[in-house]
Amino acid sequence: MSNVRDFLYCILMTTLCGCAGDQMGAFDSAEVEEALVTEIHDQNRSPDDQDPDSPADQKRPNPTPPLPPISGKTSCRADGLISPNLYSTSVAEYLIIRDKDATAFTCLRARGVQKREIPRSSCDDDSCLVTDAYIFDSHYSDGTEVELQVEKAKFTTTQARGFATKVAEALGRIPSVLRKGVREGKIQSGPGGAYADVAKFFIATEYIDSRIEQKKLAHTMFHEAVHAVWEDSSLSLNQTSGWLSAQASDNCFVTSYAQRRPAREDMAETALLAFAVNYYPERLPQADLKALQDQVPGRLKFLSDLLPKKGESLFVKQGAVFRCN
Ligand SMILES: [Zn+2]
After folding, report:
1. Which of 2, 112, 215, 227 is most buried by a 10 A CB count?
2. How far is the CA of 88 from the centre of ligand 1 (A)?
3. 25 C-alpha to ligand 1 centroid (Å)
């Protein structure tokens, strides 16, 4: 993050219509956009009209046109979306990771107040990017560890710990293979959404609470971890020939958000559903499960090779396990 004005522009654009990824590198408006879908529909306006693709996305070739129906298989819609496709974003509709599922989170270790770079709506130039933050190391049963930083200005230590705990519990429900690459979580006060950068994610406190109310904070953690660990890191899996070939060979996109931003959002959008197909197929409607298997087999194969399979543990030891008191 180098330009706070870009960030603020993103927040503004997100509030109005969602924000293209190029405005701030790794900005992710999926979850904010989700909250706006109902409002946009109520206004009888198409979300696509409100949410322009990034220039980077526009340079990409169009996906392969829909293929004719294959005998016994479902085919995607004429507009290139999976059929049945009911959703704007994959983090929005399904309950794939549930509150009753185990979390690998074990404890927080408070490390006081330190300076950290946390973009904030109250900060209107680069000079105030760095601020005081409560620092908590969140520890997990697989030996992973993520530093959670909570903007200090508006919270007591107890409140900050509360937000860090909520995030850590949700982060503990995603597979080790994703969590192991997350180093920092930056928790901003007030309204906003969630987005990611290399090995880190950003999330606003009001959004944390709204996602918990919807029982989908773990979905957001999963989605942002895909960005932070598989895409933005040196792995850059979304730029590999294997992924690009899978995109080209599949008929369609799993969500309209993935379709609008294939370079930025397709992998994160598809990964949560690939995880469901792999691990919790019974949590998907049968028609949706079949549609995914029929219509995006290339992407599912690519992602399945990265994700735990049904019967395997989600949590695989990654290093020495911190001993909580
Ligand atoms: Zn995203």
Report:
1. 227
2. 12
3. 12
